[in-house]
Design brief:
- With about 400 residues, this protein is an alpha+beta fold.
- It is globular and about 65 Å long.
- The structure holds 8-demethyl-8-dimethylamino-flavin-adenine-dinucleotide and P-hydroxybenzoic acid.
- P-hydroxybenzoic acid binds next to loops.
Length: about 400
C-alpha cells in the first residue's frame, strides 16, 4: 500500500486532517485500533471555539452542527453562592462558542470520510512506525488477519495520549512537561433538559462542579472528585446530591434525570516538544493534554491539524518546506497559551486538597477580580473563545 499521508488514529484530529487533505485532493489512509462503534460512543468534549466551527464548516462537515449545535454567547461563573455572567460575545467583539458533542463531530467526520471513498480502517492491530528519520517512512499494521506495509511521504501521529507515535521519537530529542492535579472529574450524561441555558462553572467548598449540556434534552454534568476514585463508590444518588449542593443557589434548582453514562477522568497537563521528528508529525492529544476546565483539548487538536494540512498542501504541491518546518513552533505557541489558560481556570475553580486558607483567599480574590474588572473578564473571554 502507498499513500501520501498515513494518519494513525481516527479521533477528531485524525479524521479532521483526513477531510482537510481530501478537500485539497491529497491522499491519505486512516488507521484506527478501536471499532467504529467504540469511537463514535466515546463521550468527551462539548465546547467548540467559533474558529473551529468555521473550519469544520468550510471543510464541508458543518451541516448537522449548524442545525443541532447550540450557540452560546456567555458562560456563568459561580462562587460564594452567587452567579456572575461572562458575556463572551460582547467582550470579544462578537465571538461565540458552540455546544456540540465530540461524539457527533466524530460521527459526522466518519460519515464524510466513508462517503469520499478514501480508506478508513477500524480495528487495526500491531501498529509500528518505521523510517521516520528517512524520506521513506512506513507504517506496519495488521488488519483482519493480514499484515500491511503502508509506504507514505509523512506520518501524522493523531493517536491520542496513549498512542504509539510519540514513543517512536527518540527520548533524547523529546522534552516533556507534565503536571498532575490532585483531583479528577466525575462526569455524567443525564436524560434531562439542562437546568440553565448557559454553562455554569461553580467553585464550592465541597469542590468544583460544572453544568453543561449536549442538546435541549440532555445534560452533561461534572463534579470534582479524588483522583483514581472507583466509580462504584459513586451511586447516582450520591452524584446528584453533590451536584445539588455545589450548583444550587437560592431560587434555582437542578433538575434530575436518568443517568445515561458516567465516568471519571484524571486531570493533567502535558506537553511534548517538538511536535515533529523527521517525517512524523504529532497532533492533538498525542502531543499535549490540558485539564478540561478551559474546554480546550478538542479545539487544540483541530487547530493543530489545520496548520498541518496547510503545511502539507504547500509542500506536496510546490515542494516548499517552510510551513512544515514552522509546524511545531507555530502549534506550540497556541498550545502553551491553552496550557496556561487551562491551568489557571483549574487552579481558580477547584478545591485544593490541603485546604490551605491562604490559597482559598487568593482564589476568591481572583474570582472577584474576574467578574468585576472589564479587562480581567475580557482576558478570560478571549482565551475561552480562542485565538484565530
Ligand atoms: P483522541 O480523541 O484520543 O483520538 C485518538 C485516536 O487514536 C486511536 N489510537 C490508535 N489508532 C491506531 N493505532 C494505535 N496504536 C492507536 N492508539 C490510539 C484512539 O482509539 C483514538 O480513536 O485524540 P485527538 O484526536 O487528538 O482528540 C483530542 C480530544 O479527544 C480531547 O482533547 C478532548 O476530548 C478533551 N476534552 C475537551 N476538549 C475540548 O476542546 N472541549 C471540551 O469541552 C472538552 N471536554 C475533554 C472534555 C476530555 C474529557 N476526557 C474524557 C478526557 C471532557 C472530558 C471528560
Ligand atoms: C462538556 O460539555 O463536556 C464540557 C464543557 C466545558 C468544559 C469541559 C467539558 O470546560
Amino acid at each position: 500500500m502507498r499513500t501520501q499521508v498515513a494518519i494513525v488514529g481516527a479521533g477528531p484530529a485524525g479524521l479532521t486532517l483526513a477531510q482537510l487533505l481530501h478537500v485539497e485532493g491529497i491522499d491519505s489512509v486512516v488507521i484506527e485500533n478501536r471499532s467504529r462503534e467504540y469511537v463514535e460512543a466515546r463521550i468527551r468534549a462539548g465546547v467548540l471555539e467559533q474558529g473551529v466551527v468555521d473550519l469544520l464548516t468550510a471543510a464541508g462537515v458543518g451541516e448537522r452542527m449548524a442545525r443541532e449545535g447550540l450557540v452560546h454567547e456567555g458562560i456563568e461563573l459561580q462562587f460564594a453562592g452567587e452567579r456572575h455572567r461572562i458575556d463572551l460575545k460582547t467582550l470579544t467583539s462578537g465571538k461565540t462558542i458552540t455546544v456540540y458533542g465530540q461524539t457527533e463531530i466524530v460521527k459526522d467526520l466518519i460519515n464524510t470520510r466513508l462517503a469520499s471513498g478514501r480508506p478508513l480502517l477500524f480495528e487495526v492491530d500491531d501498529v509500528h512506525l518505521d523510517g521516520i528519520d528517512s524520506d521513506r517512512p512506513c507504517v506496519r499494521f495488521s488488519h483482519q488477519g493480514t499484515t500491511h506495509e503502508l509506504d507514505c511521504d509523512v506520518i501524522a501521529g493523531c493517536d491520542g495520549f496513549h498512542g504509539v507515535c510519540r514513543p517512536t521519537i527518540p527520548a533524547r530529542v523529546l522534552r516533556t512537561f507534565t503536571r498532575e492535579y490532585p483531583f479528577g472529574w466525575l462526569g455524567i450524561l443525564a436524560n434531562v433538559a439542562p437546568s440553565n441555558d448557559e454553562l455554569i462553572y461553580a467553585s464550592h467548598d465541597r469542590g468544583f462542579a460544572l453544568l453543561s449540556m449536549r442538546s435541549p434534552q440532555i445534560s452533561r454534568l461534572y463534579v470534582q472528585c479524588r483522583p483514581g476514585e472507583d466509580i462504584a463508590d459513586w451511586p447516582d444518588n450520591r452524584i446528584w446530591e453533590e451536584l445539588h449542593t455545589r450548583l444550587e443557589i437560592p431560587g434555582w434548582t437542578l433538575a434530575e434525570g436518568r443517568v445515561l453514562e458516567k465516568g471519571i477522568t484524571p486531570m493533567r497537563s502535558f506537553v511534548a516538544e517538538p511536535m515533529r521528528h523527521g517525517r512524523l508529525f504529532l497532533t492533538g492529544d498525542a502531543a499535549h493534554i490540558v485539564p478540561p476546565t478551559g474546554a480546550k483539548g478538542l479545539n487544540l487538536a483541530v487547530r493543530d491539524v489545520q496548520l498541518l494540512a496547510e503545511a502539507l498542501t504547500v509542500w506536496l504541491r510546490h515542494g516548499s518546506e517552510t510551513l512544515l518546518d514552522a509546524y511545531s513552533t507555530s502549534c506550540l505557541r497556541r498550545v502553551w497559551r491553552a496550557e496556561h489558560f487551562s491551568w489557571w481556570m483549574t487552579t481558580m475553580l477547584h478545591t485544593l486538597d490541603d485546604g490551605d486558607p491562604f490559597a482559598v483567599r487568593l482564589q476568591e480574590s481572583q474570582l472577584r477580580y474576574v467578574v468585576s474588572s472589564g479587562p480581567a473578564a475580557t482576558s478570560l473571554a478571549e482565551n475561552y473563545v480562542g485565538f484565530d
